[in-house]
From TrEMBL:
SUPFAM superfamilies: PP2C-like (SSF81606). InterPro entries: PP2C, PPM-type-like_dom_sf, PPM-type_phosphatase-like_dom. This is Serine/threonine phosphatase stp. SMART domains: PP2C_SIG, PP2Cc. It comes from Microbacterium azadirachtae. Residues 8-244 form the PPM-type phosphatase domain.
Amino acid sequence: MIGPIVARAGASTHTGLRRALNEDAHLAQAPLFLVADGMGGHQAGDVASGTVIEGFAALHGRPALTIDDVSFTLARVRAAVDAIAGASLANGGVAKAGTTLSGVAIAAVDGVGYWLAVNIGDSRTYRLSGGVLEQISVDHSVVQELIDSGELRAADAVKDRRRNIITRAIGAGSTGEADYWMIPARVGDRILVCSDGLSSEVEDDEIRTLLAVHEDPQTAADRLIDRALEHGGRDNVTAVVVDAIHVSTRPGSDGTTGIDDEDIDSDTRPRAEAMGGMR
């Protein structure tokens, strides 16, 4: 069965130049295109992100998903990550397993193709459409809160030492909910889902250029990873690039609707751990 969006995708991941372990995990098979960035170190972060992606992989092969499908699966994988963290603590571990999650699912409204975007944490989902790059997701981070409140300029955020402290996660003691958006899809849409190892190294203008220049999604994903490494590769880095090559549409379907210094520490961390419970 042909789904409401026919997509082709490419994906690439790298441990980075300063890490011994890749705690990122990803899924790039219709109807789901996701990136999870784990925290907590070995037997914590990598297990948490892998558990989340494995849980969502069970939805592979469906032509489309609903918000209920995604939210139900998210509840199940959250419980699994919490169980991993509990077992680790019971065995004398100190790290709290946790992970971010960002990406899109193929969805439909009255037969029309939509991107169902989901985000929790500071991994990101972008859309390149009509030559314009838009960040769909909103970072759940201390730095984003400071920008929103006017206490920090967006231009200063990239070098702020708090930029990797997140306020919501799956696991890591967080109970924060995910954000969802339903976005009408168009033929030619290019979606980028990435861990903060990419967005913290490569500026949005360069991301847009690389996505626009490289037609093949796998080539685009590989080149994005290369640039993150060339810029320093201080963290694990993952990119999933998705192209809409066919979309079921109706006249008038358009717009977006929201539902709901040099050696900066580049580990993604839950806010409570990094700031001693600061609110």
